[in-house]
Amino acid sequence: MWPFIDDIQKYDSLSIIGLEKNTGKTETLKYVLDRLPIDKKRIVVTSIGIDGETTDQVTLTQKPEIVLREGMFFGTSEMHYRQRRLVSELIDVSDVTTSLGRVVTAKALTDGKILLSGPASTVGLRQWMADMRRFDIDLVVIDGALSRMSSASPAVSQSMILATGAAYSANLPTLVQKTAFVVDLINLPLTDGEDIRRLLPLEKGVWWTDGEGQLHELNGLTSLAKEIRFDGMEQCRQLYVAGALVDGFLEKVRKNKNLRQTEIVVRDFTKIFVTPLQFRTFLKSGGSIHVLQKSQLLAITVNPTSPSGYVLDSDMLCGKLTEVTGIPAYDLLKDRKKCN
After folding, report:
1. 183 in helix, strand or coil?
2. If DSSP codes are grouped into helix, strand and coil, which group holds residue 338?
């Protein structure tokens, strides 16, 4: 059994995220759920969006179903709870709602299959996770993906596993490079604790902090605005982007002589939509980027096979990813026999 299974148990929450469809995220989730010690810990699993379908609705490829073990807890929508293929005990019906109804939490009384469709917003996910404390849950496992059209962020969890593979890029050097950039974003440092408390409630707009620590809104704009003026911001020490951080905004900050040493703060790495070149140019120019919330990246898992059937060298891929990122990378399907 790979060591990251033990590492997971040091945290109260885990997100498993895929960089693209068919990168092995669901297989990673299955691997983790099969090996966590449910005799020692109360574990609940949910999903950002929908997971557990037998066929991917976009690529029409086969997907592994989510099989829960007896004693495991799960959170899913009312619609999918009614479609469960296991015996369960209803624990809670949340105020958190999805397009498929309220989020229902239950305990599996038998092994069986389930469709997972949990909170679809960060606020809802946080609320549901907080509710789990009432039921003495030790570990929340979240199935989430960066490619999903969801407003919920997997970065709300304390720990994370990243799934990548040939579906993200069929060229091995390119795949390593693209995955390593995402790892760099995940590993961005937290900003100061007092700033986290001040900025976290601000969910819209662009804000700046002056030399005396006073907070100001930047003309009610977002970072996507074409015309952004930084007049009167000579004493700016920090820019907070509540929404998406994009290339154009980053470039404008970098080219403004008064802002070259400014700290940019975003909510979490999922809000960053910049190219590696723009990102690294900004940092080299003296700027810095910090986040309000982050997860500890425990492992990278790989699926070397693309949906079209192209297969990368698994050992080389895992080796290169580990070397470049410093995070251990595993092909769980290939090494399943070794780890059991």
Report:
1. helix
2. helix
